[in-house]
Design a protein that fits this description.
Layout: H1 2-5, E1 28-32, E2 44-48, E3 60-62, H2 78-81, H3 88-95, H4 98-101, H5 104-122, H6 135-155
Length: 156
């Protein structure tokens, strides 16, 4: 599903570079666990980009729970809402070059994170979704750090 959402030639993924006049503003993929296969109270994991253009945005895991903490990295302040909505993750993406955004380490980080979560969903010994309360925030923080590291290496 992620590869479909990243497919620009089909028109599914629309970027500012296309002639459609529209741009994808964020993407989501959800993995829903059938009740008969549930091994814990975790019945779904949602993967969000939280930034435009799924071709270069990472899909980050999110599990709903009573204690979920999004953190400040994907939240716009009231003044940003009325202007450009530049939360820290979006700002990091805007400052990054295409080369930075397409860095293999980012793709590997995304793939490893998805595989880890999928493994946990299939054979979870966790009894509570609260175990994952900062999962999304941690993935966003790691994405920003990877972009910063790539930028610093390029300057060297």
């Amino acid at each position: 599903m992620i590869s479909i959402l990243r497919d620009q030639p089909s028109g599914i993924c629309m970027t500012d570079e296309t002639d459609h006049g529209y741009a994808s503003t964020g993407s989501q993929v959800s993995v829903l666990i059938p009740v008969s296969n549930q091994k814990s109270e975790i019945d779904a994991c949602h993967f969000f980009t939280a930034t435009p253009n799924p071709q270069v945005s990472l899909f980050k895991p999110f599990i709903f729970s009573a204690k979920v903490e999004l953190g400040p990295l994907t939240v716009s302040t009231p003044s940003e809402i009325s202007s450009e909505r530049l939360h820290p993750l979006y700002s990091a993406h805007k400052k990054a070059t295409r080369e930075q955004l397409e860095d293999q380490r980012l793709k590997d980080f995304e793939h490893e994170g998805i595989m880890e979560i999928m493994g946990k969903l299939k054979s979870s010994n966790e009894t509570s979704a609260d175990t994952y309360e900062t999962l999304f925030h941690d993935a966003v923080d790691a994405e920003i750090e990877l972009l910063r590291e790539q930028k610093q290496k390029k300057r060297s």
